[in-house]
């Protein structure tokens, strides 16, 4: 009597168990290294895997939870989703700065993991089911989101930086180490959806969110127990300063207090999503102005490289605004207008990380092979191809919905599930052409003293895209009674696809001009200009973004 969902959850649990047994075997070996890598890598692999398990398990449920449990309209749910995900991508900039300057990466990750564990457990308080207008438990929900946002700020990026610190800069194992770490990210993401989100959707919201919290707790325990495996990496740059008294309190504890104060600020902001959009826009303009101000102090070549980076950063809101429809409006569209064949809606959120696990190494090898043949596309051309594929994903899906849909129960018109798989395939190949390539470009082209600034600008572009995703989803939700209609959604997706396809082609067309601004022929290595974590292939919020010094 089992359905696809039951079998998939069992298979995901078995795969997860196999990796856990293998990880336990690796970290308990008497030797310092296992399979050519320090044991600290495997500890970080599992800590990050559990964090992604909890985050993606919760993310797959969020929009459905807002609509079905808290009874928000489609438009409001999408806007909340966009505000939440945009803040998740902004806070790592601040968390990384505090870690670089004061706390060190290990303590920042530890504090972030504590906040994340609390946040995911608070998500399990679902109230009496009377909706957001009548249930005061909604305040606990806002608190949960705020804890997760700030916790992500302290944990993300910093845990990736520690991976980089386990290896010397010239160590040839760095790329393979980040590939292993990156597999942990996407293993956790897929398992979180197939296990936690499945139980949340089919059994109870509290069970799904609670299991995500339990996964995060396991990640916290792994990180605490595994501290000796880090061999002193990721510690504070100035431990004595952390013990200095400020207003009678140790600086370290004062910084943790700042983190909790940040939770209070985010608790307020997340309830007023339009404020988040305004703050992002104003901050983005100010950051762009500052980047330009700093650029005009540089020599001609370095200045033109900054112009090239700005061009690439301005592509981020468009791509991520479309990509993140997957967790927002497309999640609702899948729930109502796709012939899923008995598969739970949340399961489709696992397709992207599974595709990344399968295709990530293939793309890494493809770029190297093309480079050896002298036919590798330039960075802007790759990013243009990524945007074009994102547009094509929507166009193919709408074409399939318009020409191959069938009539289901109660006369509902249902799109074949095949076109959803094609959508995720094209959006994933687009992501692999754009995201790791963009991260690499920020590092390669930045002068040393602007490295963190340019990566912060990259994060702002990504965060802006997440908010744009929610905003576009909210516009689609202005249909009948505040809910998205099938026709309205398909019309919007078609327009999004055409715009992205045209922009992607235009970017490819102007890529030679942008490449010329990059002055690749005169780039050279400088001592100390590498960013810890630069080699990671993973999702935008996962990359190391701060100079090791």
Automatic annotation (TrEMBL):
One of its GO terms (biological process) is oligopeptide transport. It comes from the Bacteria. It is found in: Cell membrane. Pfam families: PTR2 (PF00854). The chain crosses the membrane at residues 6-28, 78-99, 108-125, 140-167, 179-199, 205-230, 251-270, 276-293, 305-323, 354-371, 383-401, 413-439, 451-472, 492-514. Residues 10-515 form the Major facilitator superfamily (MFS) profile domain. Keywords: Cell membrane, Membrane, Peptide transport, Protein transport, Transmembrane, Transmembrane helix, Transport. GO terms for cellular component: plasma membrane. Its main location: membrane. It is a multi-pass membrane protein. InterPro entries: Dipep/tripep_permease (IPR005279), MFS_dom (IPR020846), MFS_trans_sf (IPR036259), MFS_Transporters (IPR050171), POT_fam (IPR000109), PTR2_symporter_CS (IPR018456). One of its GO terms (molecular function) is peptide transmembrane transporter activity. This is MFS transporter. It comes from Erythrobacter insulae.
């Amino acid at each position: 009597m089992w359905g696809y969902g039951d079998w998939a959850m069992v298979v995901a649990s078995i795969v997860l168990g196999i990796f856990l047994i293998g990880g336990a075997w690796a970290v308990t070996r008497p030797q310092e290294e296992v399979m050519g890598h320090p044991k600290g890598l495997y500890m970080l692999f599992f800590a990050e895997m559990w964090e992604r398990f909890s985050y993606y398990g919760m993310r797959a449920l969020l929009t459905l939870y807002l609509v079905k449990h808290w009874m928000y309209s489609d438009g409001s749910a999408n806007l909340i989703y966009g505000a939440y995900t945009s803040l998740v991508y902004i806070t790592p900039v601040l968390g990384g700065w505090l870690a670089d300057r004061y706390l060190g990466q290990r303590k920042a990750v530890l504090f972030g993991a504590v906040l994340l564990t609390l946040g995911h457990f608070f998500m399990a308080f679902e109230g009496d089911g009377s909706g957001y207008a009548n249930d005061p438990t909604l305040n606990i929900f806002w608190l949960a989101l705020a804890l997760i946002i700030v916790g992500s700020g302290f944990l993300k990026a910093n845990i990736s930086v520690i991976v980089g610190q386990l290896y010397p800069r010239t160590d040839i194992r760095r790329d393979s180490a980040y590939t292993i770490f990156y597999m942990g990210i996407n293993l956790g993401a897929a398992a979180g959806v197939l296990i936690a989100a499945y139980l949340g959707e089919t059994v109870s919201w509290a069970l799904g969110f609670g299991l995500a919290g339990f996964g995060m707790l396991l990640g916290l325990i792994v990180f605490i127990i595994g501290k000796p495996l880090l061999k002193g990496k990721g510690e504070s740059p100035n431990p004595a300063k952390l013990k200095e008294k400020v207003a009678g309190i140790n600086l370290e504890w004062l910084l943790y207090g700042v983190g909790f104060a940040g939770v209070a600020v985010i608790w307020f902001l997340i309830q007023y999503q339009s404020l988040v959009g305004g703050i992002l826009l104003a901050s983005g303009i100010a950051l762009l102005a500052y980047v330009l101000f700093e650029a005009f102090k540089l020599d001609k070549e370095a200045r033109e490289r900054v112009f090239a980076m700005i061009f690439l950063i301005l592509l981020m809101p468009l791509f991520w605004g479309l990509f993140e429809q997957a967790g927002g409006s497309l999640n609702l569209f899948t729930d109502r207008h796709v012939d899923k064949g008995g598969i739970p809606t949340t399961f489709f959120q696992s397709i992207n990380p599974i595709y990344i696990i399968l295709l990530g190494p293939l793309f890494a090898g493809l770029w190297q092979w093309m480079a050896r043949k002298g036919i590798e596309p330039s960075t802007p051309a790759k990013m243009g191809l990524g945007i074009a594929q994102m547009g094509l994903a929507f166009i193919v899906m709408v074409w399939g919905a318009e020409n191959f849909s069938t009539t289901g129960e109660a006369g509902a018109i249902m799109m074949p599930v095949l076109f959803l798989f094609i959508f995720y395939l094209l959006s994933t190949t687009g992501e692999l052409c754009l995201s790791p390539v963009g991260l690499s470009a920020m590092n390669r082209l930045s002068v040393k003293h602007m490295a963190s600034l340019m990566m912060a600008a990259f994060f702002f572009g990504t965060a802006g895209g997440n908010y744009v995703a929610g905003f576009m989803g909210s516009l689609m939700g202005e249909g009948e009674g505040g809910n998205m209609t099938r026709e309205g959604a398909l019309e919007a997706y078609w327009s999004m696809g055409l715009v992205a396809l045209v922009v992607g082609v235009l970017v490819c067309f102007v890529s030679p001009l942008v490449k010329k601004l990059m002055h690749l022929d005169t780039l050279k290595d400088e001592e100390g200009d590498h960013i810890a974590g630069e080699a990671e292939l993973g999702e935008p919020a996962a990359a190391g973004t701060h100079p090791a010094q």
